[in-house]
Design a protein that fits this description.
Blueprint: H1 2-18, H2 27-37, H3 40-47, H4 51-65, E1 70-72, E2 77-79, H5 81-110, E3 113-117, H6 119-136, E4 142-146, H7 153-156, E5 160-165, E6 173-186, H8 189-192, E7 206-209, H9 215-222, E8 234-236, H10 239-247, E9 252-256, H11 257-266, E10 276-287, H12 294-309
Parallel strand pairs: 3-4, 3-5, 7-8, 7-9
Antiparallel strand pairs: 1-2, 5-10, 6-9, 6-10
Helix pairs in contact: 2-3, 2-4, 2-5, 3-4, 6-11
C-alpha cells in the first residue's frame, strides 16, 4: 500500500515539475522595446499601446520574476543588472518565435491549393476542367476535398471552397460568385419523348435527392406548374445516384445545368423544358486573410476567366 502511495506522490511531483513557469508572454515585446528605448512612453508609441499598459505589463513581469528590471529615474529608465541579463534571452526567444512563424506562414503560402468542393459538382464540373488550370499553372499543386458541410477553413487547412447559395456568408469569409444556377427537369431520351408539356409530368415518376428536397417545388413554382404532386416519387441519398437513375429511365429529376452538361451533350439525358434560374449562385468562398495569397488569386482569376471565355458552355435544349 505504501509503495503505491509513494508512486502516486512521485508522479504528482513529476507532473508539477513538468509545468512551465513562463513569464507573462505578452509583456516580453513591451520589455524588449522599453529596454531598447529606455522609455515606457516611447515603447508605448512603438507598440501602439498606452503608457499605463506598458507600466502594468512591466510590473506584472517584475512580480513574476521577483526582481526589478528597470530603475525608474526622474526623466529616464535604466536597466538593472537583472534587466540587462534578461534582455538577450528575451530577444532570442522573440526572434525565434518570429522566424518560426515566418517559416510556417511561408510554407502555407507556398503549399498546395486546397479546395473544398460539393461532391457532384467536383466530379461533373470541376475535375473535367482542372486540366486547363494545371496546364496554365503547373507550379500550383491542387488538392481536392469533397464535402458539402460548412467549412472550418483554419482547422481543415482549406484555402477556398465552392458552394452554392446566396449571401449572407459567415463573418470573415469573402465570396466570389462565378456562375448563376439554372435548374430544370432531365430524363432519358425515351421518357422525354412522352413529355410534351410540364403537365405531362403527372404521369411519370419524379426523382428526388435528400440533399436538395426542395428541387421539385422550386422548379414547379418557377415554371408556374400547379397540377403536379411534388412529393411523389423515389428518393436517393446522393445527387450522383439521382442522376444515374434518371439516365436509367427510372423517372424525371430536377438538376442544375452544370451537373448534366456532359450527359446532355452525349444524349444520355434530355432537358425537355429547358432550364430556369433558381436565384442562387455558385460561389468561391475564402477567408479574408488568404485573399492576397498568389495561389488563391490565381484560382479566382482562372475560374472567372473560364466562365467568361465560354469554357463553361451554355447548352441549348
Amino acid at each position: 500500500m505504501a509503495a503505491s502511495i509513494d508512486a502516486a506522490i512521485n508522479f504528482d511531483d513529476l507532473r508539477r515539475l513538468a509545468k512551465r513557469r513562463l513569464p507573462p508572454l505578452k509583456a516580453l515585446p513591451a520589455f524588449e522595446e522599453a529596454a531598447r528605448l529606455l522609455s515606457f512612453s516611447a515603447a508605448a508609441r512603438e507598440l501602439n499601446l498606452t503608457h499605463g499598459a506598458i507600466s502594468r505589463q512591466m510590473k506584472a513581469l517584475e512580480t513574476h520574476l521577483g526582481v526589478r528590471l528597470f530603475r525608474r529615474l526622474s526623466r529616464r529608465l535604466e536597466l538593472t543588472e537583472a534587466g540587462a541579463a534578461f534582455l538577450p534571452a528575451t530577444r532570442s526567444a522573440l526572434d525565434g518565435l518570429e522566424a518560426s512563424a515566418a517559416r510556417l506562414s511561408a510554407a502555407a503560402r507556398q503549399g498546395p491549393l486546397v479546395i473544398a468542393c460539393l461532391p457532384t459538382f467536383m466530379m461533373r464540373w470541376l475535375i473535367p476542367r482542372l486540366y486547363d488550370f494545371n496546364a496554365r499553372h503547373p507550379s500550383i499543386d491542387v488538392r481536392l476535398s469533397a464535402s458539402s458541410a460548412p467549412v472550418d477553413f483554419a482547422r481543415e487547412g482549406v484555402d477556398v471552397a465552392i458552394r452554392i447559395g446566396a449571401p449572407p456568408w459567415p463573418e470573415g469569409i469573402e465570396a466570389q460568385a462565378f456562375m448563376n444556377e439554372e435548374i430544370g427537369p432531365v430524363c432519358s431520351p425515351a421518357l422525354a419523348a412522352r413529355l410534351r408539356r410540364p403537365a405531362d409530368l403527372q404521369h411519370h415518376p419524379l426523382l428526388h435527392t435528400e440533399t436538395r428536397g426542395d428541387a421539385w417545388p422550386d422548379w414547379l413554382g418557377r415554371s408556374k406548374t400547379t397540377t403536379i404532386d411534388a412529393t411523389k416519387g423515389q428518393r436517393f441519398e446522393h445527387f450522383y445516384f439521382l442522376l444515374e437513375a434518371a439516365v436509367a429511365g427510372l423517372g424525371v429529376a430536377v438538376a442544375p445545368r452544370p451537373l448534366v452538361m456532359e450527359d446532355l451533350k452525349l444524349g444520355r439525358l434530355v432537358a425537355p423544358f429547358g432550364f430556369v434560374r433558381s436565384g442562387r449562385q455558385y460561389c468561391l468562398l475564402y477567408p479574408t486573410e488568404v485573399a492576397g495569397l498568389a495561389k488563391v488569386r490565381t484560382f479566382r482569376a482562372w475560374i472567372g476567366r473560364a466562365r467568361k471565355s465560354g469554357q463553361i458552355e451554355r447548352i441549348r435544349v
